Amino acid sequence: MDTVGFFALALAVLGCILSAESRFTRADRRMARVERKVDLIMKHLDLREDLRMDEVAALVREGKKIHAIKLYRDVTGADLREAKEAVDRLG
Questions:
Q1: pLDDT of residue 68
Q2: How many CB atoms lie within 10 A of CB 43?
Q3: Pairwise CA distance, residues 75 & 67, whole Å
Q4: What distance in Å separates the CA atoms of residue 76 and residue 83, rounded to the nearest whole number?
Q5: Which residues contact 75 (CB under 8 A, 6 or more apart)?
Q6: CB 80, CB 73: distance < 8 Å
Q7: How far apart are CA 30 and CA 24, in angstroms?
Q8: What is the pTM of this model?
Q9: For labelling alongside 32, which of 16, 39, 40, 43 has CA 20 to 30 A away?
Q10: 3-state secondary structure string, the chain?
Q11: Residues 86 and 52: beta-carbon distance below 8 Å
Q12: Is 59 exposed, middle or buried (0-12, 13-18, 19+ CB in 10 A)?
């Protein structure tokens, strides 16, 4: 491959990387705005996630670990491994 071809390929790869990074950055900003809005709505409605976490802890105390993991996933949106580790820390 000649030098000009190599530089053209390198510039194309760099352009793709920068484009993907820009899209991720925009998505992160959008997600942060949505999270702020949800937080404001929850505050306005006087809702707290902590109440649901109390339910998770109660399920752990009752020995209903699978139900606790499922509820934890529903409340937090965590994946299965993350939810299991969190419930294990509670129990």
A1: 95
A2: 10
A3: 12
A4: 9
A5: 49, 52, 53, 56
A6: yes
A7: 10
A8: 0.49
A9: 16
A10: CCHHHHHHHHHHHHHHHHHHHHHHHHHHHHHHHHHHHHHHHHHHCCCCHHHHHHHHHHHHHCCCHHHHHHHHHHHHCCCHHHHHHHHHHHC
A11: no
A12: buried
User: Residue 36: which pLDDT band, with cuts at 50, 70 and 90?
Assistant: confident
- The one-letter amino acid at 8: A
pLDDT band for position 49 (cuts 50, 70, 90) = low
Q: Residues in the chain, how many? A: 91
Q: Could you tell me the two tokens for 33?
A: 């705005």
Structure tokens at 51: 């109440």
**Residue 23, both tokens:** 């899209």
What is the token pair recorded at 77?
Answer: 């949106």
